[in-house]
Structures are given as C-alpha cells and as structure tokens.
TrEMBL record:
Identification of the protein by name: L-asparaginase
Protein family: Belongs to the asparaginase 1 family.
Domain L-asparaginase N-terminal, chain residue ranges per copy: 8-193
Species per Swiss-Prot/TrEMBL record: Roseateles saccharophilus
Keyword Zinc-finger applies: no
Taxonomic classification: Bacteria, Pseudomonadati, Pseudomonadota, Betaproteobacteria, Burkholderiales
Length: 312
C-alpha cells in the first residue's frame, strides 16, 4: 500500500530524464541535464497529492558521473533518510551509469528506508517521454509499505541494485535484472512485490570520506581476441592501484593478458576477474586470479575501490 501523506524526497542529478532537444521528433540528439528536478515534477500532475520535497544535488550527463558527485549524493541521501518524517528518497539520474550509482549507494548506505533511482531513455521534450511515468512509479515505490534498500524503478519494473544492468542502448525498457530476480512491478501506480527488498550491511560514509583525489585508481581491462597485456603494462607503469579484468566466458583470460595481470599483482596491484558476459558469475578456482563473483566489471570496480579505501 502507498499513502500520500508519506514525505518523499526527490534528489535530482541530471541525465536524459532532464534532457531537451530542439524538436519533439529528436530522441537521440538532445542535451542531457537541462531541466531542474522541480521541472520534472511539474510534468507529473498525478503526483500533486503526494508530499514531496525536491533538491538538486547535481546537474550532469551521467556518462560524466564522478566520485565527488557520489560523495555529495551519498551524504545527501543519508541526511534525508535520517529525518524521521522522510519515508524514502527518489533519485533522478542518467541511464549510462545508473547501475554504478545504485550499487555504490547500496554498499555505502544499505538503507532501511527505500532509495529509488529512476531515469529515462527519451528526453523530456520527446513526443512520448518515458521520464514522467518512471518518476511517478519511483515515487510510488518509495512510498510503499515495507519498501527498503536501493532499487531502480524503470519501465514498470523494480530492480535490485546488485542485479540491475543496462542491457540496451535505445529501447525504453533498457534495464534488466541479470539473473531474472525482479523485486517488484509497478502496475497502474500499485507496487506488486515479486521478491525481496534488498538488504545488506552498510560500509558507512566514513569509508568514502577521503578527498576524491586520494581515492584509489582502479581501471577495467577487457579480454578479447589478440589481447596481449600491453594495456595492463601501460596502466601499471602509469600508476594504478587496482585492475578488474572483464574476461571472456567464465572470466577466462588470454595468455598475454593473464601474464601481465599476474605481473601487476606481484607488483602490488590488486587484480580481480569478472566477465564481459551480460550475466553469470566467475568461479573462484585454484591457480586463477581472484574472482569478483557475480559482479559485473563496473560493479566489481566499485567494490574494489571501496575495499582499497578500507586499507587506507
């Protein structure tokens, strides 16, 4: 059940949902992050009866998401959730790095109240923008009884932050739960729970308190035909703290890439194996470089950054 008297805080960060184009027929040649979060709410009159509070945390295209914005966003979310009158938080975001921000917030905050990220594939000026419906659904999720944790509400579906990935470059249903485990569906404003709300142990804001200039540098390298490890050696030579290898299949690596990664690991670089496949885990087998489990390469990178931050 959702109730209109629950206060939901909306935090805007920009993205396509706040983008505009010169013509309504242009769905790809737009400029992201042009409208304020108040503008987005004004386009959803169905939310008029809901208690809402809006704040602009950032205004950027999410392909340009950065550590400093993550710090500000995590702090803002934590502060608002600590207010007893706030039932949940909704974050408007770009789709490009939405899964990364969702996972980051999940690991840092693991909130008992709901934090719902939403976005759009079409700009606000499109003939049929998807942002207003997604924003409406996100607010309904945030106001739901029992809702908790970091989720993504998009195209009528609710995804766990650990599962969600952007799997299509153009369609309005661009996100999937990679192992098929949807949390819920939103149907005519009603949230139908299918699984469990995400839970976890919060690492806490202290983990990310260091100035971003001091955050560890972690990069992703990919295995592919002809991969010889030269990129790893270049990154290692330029100064790197961690590497995530997006291997083929079950995290497999070419001989050249594997050798370069092992050399880097011997030299003090933390190395994990993930997979470039859309879904599935990487098995942790004897004699192989450490596995990132079922994390995608970009989420494994976040996890490794957070682990290295703990080491100082």
């Amino acid at each position: 059940m959702q109730t209109l008297d629950r206060l939901i805080v909306i935090l805007g960060t920009g993205g396509t949902i706040a983008g505009t184009a010169k013509t309504a027929s242009d769905g790809v040649g737009y400029t992201a992050a042009q409208l304020s979060v108040e503008d987005l709410l004004a386009a959803v009159p169905a939310l008029a009866g809901q208690r809402l509070e809006a704040h602009q945390v950032a205004q950027l295209d999410s392909k340009d998401m950065d550590f400093s914005t993550w710090q500000r966003l995590a702090t803002a979310v934590d502060e608002h959730l600590a207010r007893p009158e706030v039932a949940g938080v909704v974050i408007t975001h770009g789709t490009d790095t939405l899964e990364e921000t969702a996972y980051f917030l999940h690991r840092v905050l693991a909130p008992a109240k709901p934090v719902v990220l939403t976005a759009a594939m079409r700009p606000a000026t499109a003939l049929a923008p998807d942002g207003p419906q997604n924003l409406f659904d996100a607010v309904r999720v945030a106001a739901s009884d029992g809702a908790s944790g970091v989720v993504v509400a998009f195209a009528g579906r609710v995804h766990d932050a650990t599962q969600v990935r952007k799997t299509h470059s153009y369609r309005v249903d661009a996100f999937e739960s990679v192992d098929g485990a949807l949390v819920a569906r939103v149907e005519e404003g009603v949230v139908r729970l299918l699984g469990r709300w995400p839970a976890g142990e919060a690492l806490g804001l202290a983990r990310i308190a260091a100035p971003v200039q001091r955050w560890p540098r972690v990069e992703v390298v990919m295995n592919h035909a002809g991969s010889d490890g030269a990129l790893v050696r270049a990154l290692w030579g330029g100064g790197i703290d961690g590497l995530v290898a997006a291997g083929t299949g079950n995290g497999t690596l070419s001989l050249g890439l594997d050798a370069a990664l092992r050399d880097a690991a011997a030299g003090g670089v933390k190395v994990w194996r993930s997979t470039r496949c859309d879904a599935g885990p990487v098995m942790d087998l004897p004699g192989l470089l450490p596995s990132a489990g079922a994390l995608s390469p970009v989420k494994a990178r976040i996890e490794l950054i957070l682990a290295l931050l703990a080491e100082g």
